[in-house]
Amino acid sequence: MSADYIGEKNVAISGIGQSEVGRPSQQSAMQLTADACFKALADAGLTKDDIDGVACWPGDNNNGDAFSPIGPNALISTLGLKVNWFGAGYEAPGPLAGIINGAMAIATGLCKHVLVFRTITESSRRQTDKTASALNNKTIGRDSSFFWQWYTPFNVRSAINLAAMYAQRHFHEYGTTEEQLAQIALTCRKNAELNPNAVFRTPLSMEQYLSSRMISSPLRLFDCDVHCDNSIAIILSRKDIAQDLRNPPICIDGIGSALKQPWSWDQIDLTGMAAIDAAEMMWRRSDYKPKDIGNAQLYDGFSIFALIWLEALGLCPRGESGAFVDGGSRISRQGELPINTNGGQLSGGRTHGLGYIVEACEQLWGRSGERQLPAHNVAVAAAGGGPLASSLLLVKE
Amino acid sequence: MSRKLPALNSDNQPFWQGGEQQTLLIHHCADCEQYFHPPAAICPRCNSAQVSPRAVSGHGHIVSFTINYQPWADDLEVPYVIAIIELDEQVGLRLVSNIVGCAPESVAINQRVVVHFVQFEDVWIPQFEVVS
């Protein structure tokens, strides 16, 4: 440990809540959000009057589209919260940025209890427009976005095209095979079979994986996460206060949020992404080591990202994630490093970030039912692909 | 097939319109003598404002690629190849583009490529063909 002041160590997760995972849901985005928030408050043993901060990634981006229909403004007004601080915004280190911002608000003393949330309704949206999330729909008319204009004129229509080029490069540099990559999807499905909230729960075989439709080579249909309607809320509390609440505090032992490369999908390390910057920072802020991890929840918006996170986090050597996951035993619930134990986003549903925190906490608290791992105290959650990356080291005390 | 086109400004206009003269224009910093992409008014390495577009050879190689099979829109002809190209002028000088003029399944990493332009309205999109 070399950093001098590590303020996140004063912050703990005190409660979690998740709405139904609908495909699609009949509830409105705000109904899903309120459901998740009240569940999280009850879990922590707090009321809305205790909440003095609200954080979200990415917020409603002034348009409230299905990618993130509810932001802090709407939630504060709807629930009648009285806060010292609130914040949201897309330009941050990936889907865990709400947790990181909330932790900073507590570490500075602005807040005692921050409600972090993330709502997504992409399944409902796709009932009427399958192209709703296409990159070329991010801007109207000519593309004035500083970044997407370097992709959309070449018919990069989805982030999968960019993720696929990372996978192709990983295959080329390290000899990773499609059967090895398949283990991410197969492992997630096996875990989802034991998660009543998961979207896809029927068994998936290697044969089914290999015969599934190619979307953007070498990535297939089963390498893509599954859209859903969902909201998740996480309560962050100052650690000394959290010690008197319902749940054993799960402390944020280290944040990884660094970006030391351009914010770009092609000008960065193609097989390390921004994940290498975030992970290096996280471990620098902790005394724990990769061998201490009891459960790893790794971003699987596309399967290749999970392989890259395995390496970036030092859970296996650089370039060896393919061999590490080969056969699937090491990353299974019975293996040395269980990953994505709720089915990840590939089979559990694209909750887009906070689902990894929910599962990491459920496992640490021993509340994961049929899929519960043997008791352990240290977990890692990592989210994002390309230039979006952040990670959290979580420790139950 | 139709294209999503960029909004032109003084920073990106040389890149998107250089093809009218069949030249690929990449921004270059006179102070640190390095190319950079995407173009901008400031060099990202040394922050010098002494930057300007410079014609490059248009030759390079494929760093990675993907064959897109998914018909994201009705007017999209699939499959097509998206690639990350590294230009010969400088190690790490990369851009995203397309590989055209060959069977998508024949594309491979490290193949040598050369630029060709395709015009849509006032934009000349640089694409690459494999050099045999």
Automatic annotation (TrEMBL), chain A:
The keyword Signal does not apply. InterPro entries: Thiolase (IPR002155), Thiolase-like (IPR016039), Thiolase_C_2 (IPR055140). It comes from the Bacteria. This is Thiolase family protein. One of its GO terms (molecular function) is acyltransferase activity. Keywords: Acyltransferase, Transferase. Transmembrane segments: none annotated. Residues 266-395 form the Thiolase C-terminal domain. It comes from Zhongshania guokunii. The keyword Acyltransferase applies. Its EC number is 2.3.1.-. It is an enzyme of class 2 (transferase).
UniProtKB/TrEMBL annotation, chain B:
InterPro entries: ChsH2_C (IPR002878), ChsH2_Znr (IPR022002), NA-bd_OB-fold (IPR012340), Thioester_dehydratase-like (IPR052513). Signal peptide: none annotated. Residues 54-117 form the ChsH2 C-terminal OB-fold domain. Residues 16-50 form the ChsH2 rubredoxin-like zinc ribbon domain. PANTHER family: BLR3430 PROTEIN. This is Zn-ribbon domain-containing OB-fold protein.
